[in-house]
Amino acid sequence: MRPPSIDQAPRITIDEVRQLQARGEQPVFVDVRSAEDFAQQRIAGAIHVPLREVLRRHSELPPDRWIVFY
Q1: Residues 60, 16: Cα–Cα separation, whole Å
Q2: Are 43 and 70 in contact (CB under 8 A)?
Q3: What count of other Cβ atoms lies within 10 Å of the Cβ of residue 61?
């Protein structure tokens, strides 16, 4: 079975992220940019998983929390 394309992934706005946080749900932020960009600036607590590695490393992400890729 093929994974869905990135175009099929649900989108979430920053306001929706804030609503999750206001309800006590803490999403996991996954930074898919280059290592250089991640080293320069990132969201506090974000996990770095380069985009090309997301499918291979998906098992490292918690299945019971919202995952926000950026």
Answers
A1: 24
A2: yes
A3: 14
Distance CA 20, CA 2 (A): 29
Q: Is 29 helix (H, G, I), strand (E, B) or coil?
A: strand
How far is it between the farthest Cα atoms of the chain? 37
Domains recognised in the chain with CATH numbers: 26-70 (3.40.250.10)
Phi, psi of 46 (to 5 degrees): -65, 150
Tens digits of residue pLDDT in 57-67 = 988 988 888 88
pLDDT per residue over 15-67, tens digit each? Answer: 999 999 999 998 999 999 999 999 999 999 999 999 999 989 988 988 888 88
